[in-house]
Specification:
Blueprint: H1 6-13, E1 17-20, H2 26-36, H3 44-52, E2 56-62, E3 65-75, E4 78-86, H4 95-109, E5 114-120, H5 124-132, E6 136-147, E7 150-160
């Protein structure tokens, strides 16, 4: 786990706080994204555009250490989870669930009734997290994601709010 054991991650958990993403976070956000997503991670430009657009852009951080980030758009009664990422070495300890719950609660406070997301067909850990949080498959986008072998289908999932 990159030099950390479960005890040290659990002990540090209380130190990690969700806060708004800042432009000064973007280098670390992009690094985490590249580490977590082998194929086609978001670029710095995409995150800059999300910040400028006023999207819900959040990081899970302790000082200068960022362990996760999420971006969501909210408009006219619905939200769209655009990305949710946890740095390798910190995955499978509940950080993704914590960020997702937080983002969905924010969407609900902004009067969203439903949340949508796309997930790679091959991303079993993400699909498992989303199912455990009440998301159900509602459709498919053929050839949605670029991949090393051409294109990959996306599963569209949704859930109603509140949690």
């Amino acid at each position: 786990m990159h030099g950390l054991d479960l005890l040290s991650v659990t002990a540090k958990d209380s130190a990690f706080k969700l806060r708004r993403m800042r432009p000064s976070d973007l280098e670390l956000v992009v690094q985490n994204e590249a580490l977590a997503l082998d194929e086609h991670p978001w670029t710095k430009r995409i995150f800059v555009d999300c910040l400028r657009s006023g999207y819900e852009c959040w990081v899970l951080a302790d000082g200068n250490m960022l362990v996760g980030h999420g971006v969501m758009s909210v408009a006219i009664g619905e939200c769209h989870l655009l990305t949710l990422c946890v740095k390798p070495g910190f995955q499978r300890y509940g950080y993704g669930r914590r960020m997702l719950r937080f983002l969905l609660e924010r969407a609900q406070r902004q009067e969203a009734d439903v949340c949508f997301l796309e997930v790679r067909h091959s991303n079993e850990p993400a699909k498992s997290l989303y199912r455990s949080m009440g998301f159900l498959p509602v459709g498919e986008r053929k050839n949605y994601y670029p991949s090393a072998h051409g294109r990959e289908d996306a599963i569209i999932m949704s859930r109603t709010l509140p949690l």
